[in-house]
Every structure is written in structure tokens, then in C-alpha cells.
Amino acid sequence: MNNTSSSNTAASAAPAGRALITPRQLTLALVAALALAWGFLPEFTVSVLSNIGLYALVAAGLVMLTGVGGMTSFGQAAFVGMGAYATAWICTSPTAAAWMGGAVNPALLPWAGLLLGLVFTFALAWALGAVTLKLQGHYLPLCTIAWGLSLYYLLGNMDFLGGQTGITGVPPLVVAGYSLATPRALGVVIWAVLLLALWAMHNLLDSREGRAIRALKGGRLMAESMGVDTARHRVKLFVLAALLAAVSGWLYAHLQRFVNPTPFNLSIGIELLFMAVGRGAGHLWGAVLGAALITLLKEKLQDVLPSLLGSSGNFEVIVFGLLMLFVLQRFADGLWPTLARIAGRWVRPHAAAATDAARPAAPPVQLAHRDLPARGEVLLQATKVSKRFGGLVANNDISMTLKAGEIHALIGPNGAGKSTFFNMVSGVDDPSSGEVRLAGQPMTAKPSRVFAALGLGRTFQHVRLLGARSVAENVALGAHLRARRGWLAAMLRLDRAEEAALMAEARRQIERCGLGAHADTPAASLSLGQQRVVEIARALAGQPSVLLLDEPAAGLRHLEKRALSVLLSQLRAEGLGILVVEHDMEFVMNLADRITVLEFGTVIATGTPAEVQANPRVLEAYLGGADDELLGDAR
Ligand code: ADP
Ligand code: MG
């Protein structure tokens, strides 16, 4: 959806005077309170809390998948079923026992079950993800419904899994000699696993890979241009959510001590999705809140409705559905942001600088560094590039070179084919004929992340930023390829030194582009002109040798334009090759070394600004009534 909308709760800073507690302190206090109360809570409450924990674990995976990654899955309950059935089968089946030669200590069987469940889920989720995540729009949710249903029926129809009756006699979990047979005992494990998972995913989101993950929803084209393999990230996110569901299923099987297919059907899958309704901006704690609300609501409805209506029936399903509709209507962004806004009076968002300083100083890490090519070297070369859209020739045999240390401008009336050409030379689209070479390599059929890896940085005509994230985070995404720590390192917080280096680089580029005062504000709250400059900073963070700028001066005020001119001249002096599409003729004429003029997809002139301005064909194209851009708008 609109990724520049600013619904960031962290940004709506509370008045400092009233703030009493940081989110981290609040979390720790709540966890401590729960831990202290655990031994004294009534049996029933403990059992409900354990169920909430199990649901929240699955919902947290869905918050990552749906809320953050933008991929809707109705089929998550099926993965819970896989985790539950794997352990139930291994713990009870004579076949499984025979396979292991009866040599295994019974106390270890549940762990073998966990392993089996994770391996199975991993393989299945990867295969399903690789096939279905390519689908666009509504097809993906529909597809998750399809495989959610198939897995559910499969579980119910396999004789060795007990058919519709399921499997009974699942043993309790045994840890260090203690049998965790009661909800009170196992609940501790459930909540420990949940909190650990929340911590790991919180860390993941606050990392290099986390920034790439956040770009999956609505920013994939942009992320690819920053070097992110978005298809791979989508599959990984899907697998992560599936594994969390499987772990929840494993715990569930040892809590209930029996399994049957019913809890893993589609309607539970839908409920789980409702729990993750803290979707909007994707808040992890929203999963716990959603799980708690829905579990309690169902509990209450089952109690209250029959006595209220005087007859029993499945009324709770109807009332439940209506309530959900109300919630979706009223709190489109999810409940969590609303709650966070209210709590904002007492909870102060932790200041990034303060926590940075509180961290132990990590040894400095060097980001990958690229030497700039020698001045005059050909960086980007287009040879007879054509692009046809059906009968329309948007680009007709365009040849052009860009050298290190020069600014080359591409101008032409609207619809001349400038943006199309940009897409050809940045890997967004392939030419119908002709060839593009970058750093000497033929680039036909290569995706834009390969262009990024070879040193091409770009901005977009229609700004593509993660609006709710800070300017610094947006710019750090540009340096994605200069660091390498992956998901696991991020989850375990082993990436802090590298992360610090990335953020330092981002701040350096922001400073250099004159936006130092805005580094910590959400990108969407900047003016359009400033957002364009953020895009330039993001491109520069990747240390490009080729810079493609699509209308960088649009929306900038006079002084900002001048500052941009100075910056681009400076980059040229450092040896970058810059290709710029721009409408502001005064800006272009003063800045560019060479200009290529397009009309109806064809090059009609190329040369220095003076040559182009004197060219009769150019004058005709611009003055002949087609457009009045060359008349100079010196705003
Ligand atoms: P410019 O950026 O110079 O204003 P564009 O490159 O956006 O021009 O468009 C050039 C021509 O190609 C226009 O006539 C436009 O309608 C057409 N065009 C651009 N993209 C597509 C597309 N994906 N499908 C069909 N026609 C397109
Ligand atoms: Mg355009």
C-alpha cells in the first residue's frame, strides 16, 4: 500500500516531561510481574495464558509475514499441525520406535519430534514459498487457503496419523528430569519461547536484513535496486513464520497430550490472521495483544451467549465475526498503534542516541569499499537500445555512453522515452533489442540488483522511500551490499559492530547532502524535495561509480537546487559518472557536460549544452508547441 504514509508511533514523541518509563522497562516490568504471579494464578488462568502464548507465537510469525512483509497467509494453522503431528507420531508410533531401534531414551523423543517437525516444515514451507510467493495480488492469499485446506485434509486422511480421531497418549515434555505435564509447568516454557522469539524478531527488524524485509511491502522494485534479493527474502520470511508455527504446534501437542486435525483447520488459520491484526505497521507485541483478546473473547462468548440467547448453537461464531468486522473497520492499522498512542503519555520512546551510547563500544568494522574508476573510463554504454510496447516504440535505437567524471543529461518532452531508457540501463526492464553494458559487462537479462552490485546507484522519478522509517534507516538501506551479516546474526545481535558502521555511513551521507538535521525523522514527514535528496543520499551510501538521477531537482526550492548543483559537481570531481533526467533547463544547462535530446523515442541531438541549445531540431521540438520546457522555467 502507500509506503510513504506516516503512521509511525515511535515518531509521535510524548512530551518528555510526563514520560515515566521506556518501552524496554515496561516490557521487563510486565514480564517480571507475570513471572512472579505465575505460581499463584488459578489453574484456569494459567491454562488460558498458556494458550495465549501458543497463539501469540504463531501470530508473531504472521505479523512478520503479513504485517511487515505484506504477504497474507490463511494457511498458518496447517504448519502448527505439522509441528504437532510430527512429535505426536514420533512419540507414540511403533514404526517410529522400530526405526530408531528402541535405543532412544523416551525423554528424548519429544526433542526428536521437534527436530522432525522443524525439518519437515522447513522443507515444505520452502517448497510452497518458492512456488506460491511469486503470485501477485489476491492469488497468494487464495493459494494459502488452498494448501491450508489440503494439509488439513491430509492430516485427517492418513491412517498412520489416526485419521479424524488423531493420536492420543502423547507424553509430556521432560526437561532436566522434570516432567512438564501441567499447564503451569509447560506454560513457563511456552512463554519463555515466545519472549525469546519476540526478542529475536525485534532484533531482526532492527538490522540490515530487517530494513530489506521492511521494503518487501511496497518497495520491492526499490529494494532490488539497492541490491536486495527480494524473492529470496520473501521465501525466508515465509519459512520463518512457518517454523514459529511448527514450534507452537510442538508445544501444543505436549500441552494437550493428544492431537486431532480440528485445531489446524482453515477457520483457525483465519483466526490466527485476525490475531496478527496488529498488522498496519507490523508491531510484534500486537501479536500477543491480538492472541489475548481473541482467546479471551472466544472464551467469554462461549460462556455468555448460550445463556443470553437461551439456546445453544454456534452463535459465537457469528458474533465473533461481527466483532472482527468492527475491529477491522475501527482500527484499520491494528489495535497496537492505537494502544501505543494512548500509552505514549507515559511511555517515552527510547532515544536512539542514548541507547547507542549505552552499548559497549564494538570494534570498528570496515564496510566494503569500491575504488572509483579512472576519469574518462566508459562506465555505462547503451548500443542501439530499442524498447517496444506493443506497437509503440518508446525507445528507438538509442546509443549513449557515460564516462567517469562527467554529468550527462537526458532531456526531451513528456513521453519522449526518458524513463523507459532509465529502466533499460538500470535493469528494471530489458531492451527489446540492443545492448547495455555496465563496467564492461553485458547486462542483458540481469536483474537490477546485479546492476547495483556493479556500482550503479539510482533515484526514482516517483520517490520510493519507507515513509514510516527514519531518514537514516532509509539511507542505510542503500549500503546494503557493503555489509554481509545475515538473519541469524541479526536475531542474535551479533551484527552490532557492522550495524554501527552502516548507520555511521548513512549519517555521513545524510550530512553531506545537507539533511543532517533530519536524520532521525520519518522520511514521509520531509518535503517532497527533501525526499528526493534522501534518495540521492541513499544511492551514495552504496558507493556507486554510476549515478542515475530521475528528475532530482523537481520540487526543490531555489536554494536547494543550488545546493544540489554543488553536490553533483563535487561528485563529478570525485570521478562519478552521472546520468540525469531533468526538466529544469536552467539547472541542466549550467550543470551538464553533455546533453542527449530525445523526441518520440529517438535521439534528435547530442552535444554540449551550447551545441544543443543552438540545434534547430531541438528548438523546433521544444518551441514547435509540443512543450515549453526549454523556454526555461527559472523558478
Ligand atoms: P518520459 O519519461 O520521457 O516522459 P516514458 O519513458 O515514461 O517517457 O514513456 C515513453 C512512451 O512509452 C510513452 O508514450 C508511454 O506512454 C509509453 N510507455 C511507457 N511505459 C510503458 C509501458 N509499461 N507500457 C506501455 N507503454 C509504455
Ligand atoms: Mg519520465
From TrEMBL:
Coiled-coil positions: none
EC numbers for this chain: 3.6.3.25
Recorded topology in the membrane: Multi-pass membrane protein
Keywords: ATP-binding, Cell membrane, Hydrolase, Membrane, Nucleotide-binding, Transmembrane, Transmembrane helix, Transport
SUPFAM superfamilies in the cross-refs: P-loop containing nucleoside triphosphate hydrolases (SSF52540)
Transmembrane segment boundaries: 26-46, 52-71, 78-102, 108-131, 138-155, 175-201, 235-253, 273-296, 308-328
Protein origin, superkingdom: Bacteria
Stored SMART domains: AAA
Cell compartment(s), UniProt: Cell membrane
Gene Ontology terms: cellular component: plasma membrane
Residue intervals of the ABC transporter domain: 380-625
GO molecular function: ATP binding; ATP hydrolysis activity; branched-chain amino acid transmembrane transporter activity
Top EC category: hydrolase
Gene3D superfamilies: P-loop containing nucleotide triphosphate hydrolases
Descriptive protein name: Sulfate/thiosulfate import ATP-binding protein CysA
Organism of derivation: Variovorax paradoxus
Lineage: Bacteria, Pseudomonadati, Pseudomonadota, Betaproteobacteria, Burkholderiales
